[in-house]
Write a structure and sequence with these properties.
The chain is an alpha+beta fold. The chain has a single domain, classed as Nuclear Transport Factor 2, Chain: A (Roll), CATH 3.10.450.50. A 5-stranded mixed sheet has the order 1-5-4-3-2. The N and C termini lie far apart (45 Å). The relative contact order is 0.19.
Length: 138
């Protein structure tokens, strides 16, 4: 039963943050001391406010027609594993990736740890090289 609750929590967060772009609504599901482990953001300082600002910057950084789909999701105890696909078209320079107006379709996996009904920690891995190749920077 707890696993179903945790899956629904993560799914709702993903929908609000990455589909509806409702960051204020999404961050009700993130703990105050949230931590992100992601090689694309190695200096993430931790905390809900820092994560919200990072996502806001990403969403405003020049990706047109963004989409985000949950392909698979599994849960056990306090962990939820989500396999996802994201796509869009780059319209502005991104950190280390100059804009060439190309579109992308990238997949990844996020492992979320849920504590006290909130997402407390995420480990993210995605096909960074594939993304760079699609955008013409690798």
């Amino acid at each position: 039963m707890a696993s179903m609750g945790n899956k629904e929590l993560v799914r709702t967060f993903v929908d609000k943050a990455f589909v509806q772009h409702d960051l204020d609504g999404a961050f009700e599901f993130i703990s105050e001391d949230y931590m992100l482990h992601d090689s694309t953001h190695p200096d993430f300082p931790g905390g809900r406010a820092a994560f919200k600002e990072m996502l806001r910057e990403c969403m405003e950084s020049g990706v047109q027609n963004p989409s985000f789909t949950i392909d698979d999701q599994f849960a056990e105890d306090d962990r939820v594993v989500t396999r996802w696909t994201s796509s869009g078209c780059q319209t502005k320079d991104l950190p280390g990736i100059p804009s060439k107006g190309k579109c992308f379709n990238v997949s990844g996996i996020t492992i979320s740890r849920v504590s006290d009904g909130k997402i407390a920690e995420d480990w993210v891995t995605m096909d960074e090289l594939g993304l760079q190749r699609q955008l013409g920077s690798a």
